[in-house]
Amino acid sequence: MQIVEMENHSEDHSSKEYDDDSEYEKEEENGSLKLNKGMKFETWELAESYLDEYAKQQGFCFRRIRRTLDPSDNTIVRRRTYECTHGQTHEPQKNILEKDKRERDSEMIGCPWHINLSFPKFSNGVRINSVIGEHNHEMNPLISEIAPRFRKLTDKMLEKIKFWTIQGRMGLSTQYNLLVALFSDKVINKKDLSNAIQQFKKQAKPSKNDACQMLTELYLKKDEDPRWIIKPRFDVGKRRLNSLFWMSPDQINAYGKYNDIVIIDTTSKTNQFDMILMLVIVVDNNFRNLIVAAAIIEDETEATFSWLLQELKNSCDVTPITLYSDADPALISAVKKNYPKTHHFHCIFYIELNLRKKLKGKLHDQFEPFHAKFLAMRNSLCPKKFETEWKKLINEFPACKQYLTKVLYPCKNSWAIFAINRNFTAGIQSTQRVEVTNRIVKKKLNRSSCLTDVVGEIQRIFDQQSKKAIISECKNEIPTRGIPSIMDEYFPNLDKILREYLTPQILQKQHDQMAQSLCYDTVLIEDWKPLLGITDDSYQQEIAREDDYDQPQSLFFLLVENIPHNNILQVWKVTRHHGQKSEPQYIVLLNDGSHLCTCLWLINRGVICRHFFQVMSYSANAQFHISLIPQRWYNNNKYNFEQHEKNILVSFHIGENELGDESEHPLSQLSFQHLMNFRQTSNVVQVQGPKQKYGFVKCFIENTKAELSEQQENVISIHIGDPLKVQHKGRQPNRYKSCGEPQRKKSKHIQDITNITNKNCEEVVESQVDKKRERHCKKCGQPARIELEREEVPECEVDDNDNDSNINL
């Protein structure tokens, strides 16, 4: 071992100080870095930085082995010693027998390289006292990519990783690609990145009880605005949170406006307690999804669903007119008990999946013919024909009788087209809208998320949805000018009224219908009573009937069965131009100013159909009034209008001056009573209650504020335990296994008992449960290894149970 003193060069190096990185760069340009006795550095950080660059250039790594502090000030370091990572030798602390020792190597091979640095009291910097520059091992040119000291993540990298993990919810692969692009000169190890991500995830989790923190944040919001609805349920004995239902004030107002169409669905894997997230979605006036309520529940029982539906009803004192959900028996029963007047429809997509799941295994090759006939039955417009087709289906496929009669038939009014087509559904057939929202939620939440994150994410999505609607409405108010369109040429006055009242999305749908009206021909039917005798429906397409654009959605006799014949002014037949195949549609003009069409667009979607606009070009009895379109599609400025306002009593018709022929004068009063009766709703324009229109009045807020404060103090003061946490098997996704975890799963041994012929088979199987699968001799029944150990090996065949092959011993 040789100590390099370098006393002859003390004059050259003792006065050489390194104050910044520029000095290092100059020395690198001149040649390789060197360490000499007497070299000075301004700070300890600069000294270590120089040592790092020197070690990378030489091809080794070092570590700190000694540090001496100032006796009078513990924050000042006076001496430090660094040595090569291969320095010293490994000495076991325990005396273990050679056979019990693990086969493990050590990097400590007694390398002599080390360096001593000091920071004297009466000096201005750090200096090198002594250097031993020899190594007893080869240098590694890739040490910067191998040694943990050189590949560690910098502070800038850690800041980026923290932001991407907590705010962006990014995974390992995405962050790795971003870091490589931002820090191309650095070596980034995926294991180090994974450890950093996991560390920041732990910091993001609540430090105290998750359920207690979530309730505390919600009740603090309720203290600021008493209109918040927060309804938790607890396990009183264990003081544990079971369920939670919440609505913000803006969600309450939205639900009061758009409660005519409600979609409910549940989803899982959104929190670490494996609780079920239930979302209540409505369709706003911009034809977009809007989350108006959310709940975290422990189970999907009828009692839990009844509690949720009752809390939803109490929020605005209203019940949904139409509700869509999957065919969950518990939810169906809860809706029937709590919302008896609500039209509960089932998702047609889930009905399709359940048919394949339950009946395809029974029918095999007959499933496709059954499926075609089932759709034809479902698409029947006449209830009597539906019953006839149902009986035929049961008789032809008796294997399906139990499932069809016990599961589908009792709720036929929830999925058959003859029961759905008379209700306002906004064109919805399934729970696809809420499934899309579930996918958005699951992009940010997973089964390791805390409950606080779940509540925050739901509110963030609702705020984004509300902001989109506001921006869209503001854009619509910007005056624009373009080339003349069909609406400007054929419907100028009508388009002006629609632009004033409708939102941009509904206005576009209405414009599409107005433009398509030019593709149709219309004929006045003088004697329309023979149409009442047409009860046959010959639609045989293997799709849902409402998906066929030009198919009638109602028979004529069903359209006018509840209307006195003397109230019908005219009946028009509308067909596409010659050469285009389509079924004819019938428009019925009524004496109260309303109309009905067999396409049922005005009933189902709340949009005036293309057939009516074609009839308007020929009949003065066809009148337009903005109240024909439901108020839910109006923009926010026109939503709370009153019927007696002057600007709402606007009728549009094409009179004799425009047609050039004699026509009847339009009616002076518009009641739309027949339209309301067909819709099965009490009012075309929904009357708002005091809660929806004005919110909670001030006197009610003042009277209940004290009570809410007491409830908040009582709830927060009690320690609320978290729900039961479900520990899932296996490692979490996107996480590397540690060295202590088994890298492979143990193979399961399955006993093959196909060749056992003993009478007492059960006893034989029980005795062989714990044995491994082995090859056995066919003659003596002993394992092959026992036969091989005998002195005289018999010439017998061995049965290989694993691959059923015969091997001669």
UniProtKB/TrEMBL annotation:
<dbReference type="InterPro" id="IPR004330">
    <property type="entry name" value="FAR1_DNA_bnd_dom"/>
</dbReference>
<dbReference type="Pfam" id="PF10551">
    <property type="entry name" value="MULE"/>
</dbReference>
<keyword id="KW-0863">Zinc-finger</keyword>
<feature type="domain" description="SWIM-type">
    <location>
        <begin position="586"/>
        <end position="620"/>
    </location>
</feature>
<keyword id="KW-0479">Metal-binding</keyword>
<dbReference type="InterPro" id="IPR007527">
    <property type="entry name" value="Znf_SWIM"/>
</dbReference>
<keyword id="KW-0862">Zinc</keyword>
<dbReference type="InterPro" id="IPR018289">
    <property type="entry name" value="MULE_transposase_dom"/>
</dbReference>
<feature type="compositionally biased region" description="Basic and acidic residues">
    <location>
        <begin position="1"/>
        <end position="17"/>
    </location>
</feature>
<feature type="compositionally biased region" description="Acidic residues">
    <location>
        <begin position="18"/>
        <end position="30"/>
    </location>
</feature>
<dbReference type="GO" id="GO:0008270">
    <property type="term" value="F:zinc ion binding"/>
</dbReference>
<feature type="region of interest" description="Disordered">
    <location>
        <begin position="1"/>
        <end position="31"/>
    </location>
</feature>
<feature type="region of interest" description="Disordered">
    <location>
        <begin position="727"/>
        <end position="749"/>
    </location>
</feature>
<dbReference type="Pfam" id="PF03101">
    <property type="entry name" value="FAR1"/>
</dbReference>
<protein>
    <submittedName>
        <fullName>Protein FAR1-related sequence 5-like</fullName>
    </submittedName>
</protein>
